[in-house]
Amino acid sequence: MKRESQRLTCILLALLVASALGANEDDPALYAVGALGASSLYTSYFLLGTLADGYATAAYTASFTDELARDLIGLSQSSIEALERIVLDERIAAGDRELLSRMLRAHELLIAQAWGLIAYVEDEEDTDDWFRYRRAAWDAIRDLLGLE
User: Fold this and answer.
1) Which of 25, 72, 82, 139 is at a distance of 20 to 30 A from 129, taking alpha carbons?
2) What is the pLDDT of residue 3?
3) First CA to last CA across the chain, in angstroms?
4) pLDDT tens-digit series, residues 68-119
């Protein structure tokens, strides 16, 4: 029963992501960018939370946590670079450009959150950036996806 519930949740989330971003469905490439970008933001946010929890409970080592956080920073930076190229394209409608800019901001917040996690791994008393950027990233992602 739990597995079926998880599948249903994943399916509903995928549908929500595809519709919530509202990219013009007449442009399949831009629509795919929106859907895949939303999925990336959502899973990156939860990966960072999982890493932090794993490190805090000693399930993950400092080096493992640091390495994955830095990997996520690199992936998010690559996403930013790709999205910036699209935003600069004058053929992109203003509404789509605004949405892409919000996605860029969410990636920047995830990067800041990842650096906050790295700071926490280096000094377990240093949690301010982690929590500040975690809340801000979730607010941005939640807003993008139209979640309550």
Assistant:
1) 82
2) 52
3) 25
4) 999 999 999 999 999 999 999 888 888 899 999 999 999 999 999 999 999 9
Higher pLDDT, 30 or 139: 139
pLDDT for 25 equals 62
Report CA dihedral (85, 88, 92, 95) to the nearest 10 degrees: 110
Give the domain CATH number at 8.
1.20.120
d(CA 49, CA 55): 10
Distance between CA atoms of 18 and 11, rounded to whole angstroms? Answer: 11
Query: Which 3-state string (H, E, C) describes 58-106?
Result: CCCCHHHHHHHHHHHHHHHHHHHHHHHHHHCCCCCCHHHHHHHHHHHHH
11: domain range?
Answer: 2-145
Whether pLDDT at 53 is above 90? yes
